[in-house]
Amino acid sequence: MGCFSAVRGASMLATKGCVLSDNTDTPQEIEQLPLDAWHRRKGARMVPFAGYEMPIQYSAESGGGIVAEHEWTRSQAGLFDVSHMGQLMLTGENVAAELEKLLPGAITTLKPGKVRYSLLIDEDGGILDDLMVTNATPWIEADEEAGTEGHWGDPAYYLVVNGAMKWDDIAHLREHLPDEVTLTHMDEHALVALQGPNAATALNRVMRNTIEDMIFMESVIHDFGEWPLRITRAGYTGEDGFEISVPAEFAESLCDRLCAEIEVRPCGLGARDSLRLEAGLPLYGHDITTETDPVSADLGFALTKRRREEGGWMGHEKVMDVFNSGPARKRVGLTFEGRLPAREGAKVFDDDAEIGRITSGGFSPSLGHPIAMGYLEKSHIEPGTEVEVEVRNKRLPAKVTTMPFVPHRYHRGK
Amino acid sequence: MARYFTEEHEWIDLEGDTATVGITDYAQGQLGDIVFVELPESGTMLEKGKDAAVVESVKAASDVYAPISGEVTEANSALEDDPALVNTSPEEDGWFFRMTVSDKSQLEGLMDDKAYKSFCDEL
């Protein structure tokens, strides 16, 4: 058993076609995150990921396992540690306008408390990273003694970027943002995601209903006792849910508090990957890279109309060339019958012609059959198109399908 | 009947000249939920250390190498319909294949139950 030649937790994952490894240069030192000991107490199997020891799954004795955690998140609420991700705070006078020079989303019109998905684009139109941008400008309460009315404070933008890319992102931002913009890497904060149809029920019970008015892609500062939290209604599973930024020193207490609720169980990176795949959400370094552009990646929704027309952002011209002429290849979903999964790197054929490549693939626990996403030539991207995917010299029949594979259940309000 | 274990986490039951091969409970625990097992067909000649089978878990595909050389005489068809048998009964119902033993000396140096247990404890 090749991969078994050293079955020592992490090395188990160093098997072919595995997406749960970051594809950047592995740092010399694997670091521990604030919740490291907490995970180990919960029976997690820890693996190196994005330079950190991260929980891939929890022990079967405590109800863990990738499929069990996946199903728990689809039916209840899973608690994921995503503290490897980069949390950045940008402040300064013209920070929104400056940020717009580096990404194609509308940031100047993003209202305080609102969140937007966006992309850092390089000069060739390739994707440097995908990220969430929150207008974190604080509301300053009226002060009768000082005679001031309530007003918005100095502009601030909270960014969450991929763990494996955060150092490159920070360097890119520092290089291209003017000195007037201050970038703070919030590396003293943990980030946890509570995801699932019962996430809101559980969190509202814990937080005494203070977050019940939030809708998808909104973010608030919430002081829970002595814990200053930032709670954002968003996630990476396709389910309703929240991401909670918490100072590292309170992270364990917060996770214990959340896991005390009957709906909440800890879930690992393994389930996070199968959940996001079912939700059709791209994984940076696999489904999107500097070799892919936002249009080919089917992320056109991140290109705001005004920004497309006005330009003024890095890579605009290159991206608009693809936008106007249409991409040669596009990211689509594929579904398979049977049980054999096609994984990253598998070639897609129409008869003898190679027409694409799988970028993420696996077995869908919710659907009971394999699913994948990949880039196919434009002649083959219509839903329903039948293609073949090569796995170990076998041709698996597959069908092009729209994503998500499993419908999103975001809480968008009335 | 003698049971042997490899450092690659396979078990081999030897009964006369026939060996039954599977992966250990430790191995299935490391792999996690198994969704597909690709087994060699009867008549396939296996060479020690070369590809014999592939186990697909939710997270990854893993090769299973032949622990000894010989000819496959039977693959466990129950795994086609229920690959999760490898998780629920790895060392009994979830066996992979049966094979002839070309060279019994290849079994020398493999671990017994007790040695394998202490091997796993060290991992």
TrEMBL record, chain B:
One Pfam family linked to the record: GCV_H
InterPro entries in UniProt? 2-oxoA_DH_lipoyl-BS, Biotin_lipoyl, GCV_H, GCV_H/Fam206, GCV_H_sub, Single_hybrid_motif
Q: Name one GO biological process term.
A: protein lipoylation
- Positions of post-translational N6-lipoyllysine modification: 59
Q: Which UniProt keywords apply?
A: Lipoyl
| Cofactor note text | Binds 1 lipoyl cofactor covalently.
Cofactor(s) required, per the database record: (R)-lipoate
Which ranges carry the Lipoyl-binding domain? 18-100
Is the keyword Disulfide bond in the record? Answer: no
- Outline what the protein does: The glycine cleavage system catalyzes the degradation of glycine. The H protein shuttles the methylamine group of glycine from the P protein to the T protein.
Give the family from UniProt. Belongs to the GcvH family.
Record-given protein name: Glycine cleavage system H protein
Q: Per the UniProt entry, what species is this protein from, by scientific name? A: Qipengyuania aquimaris
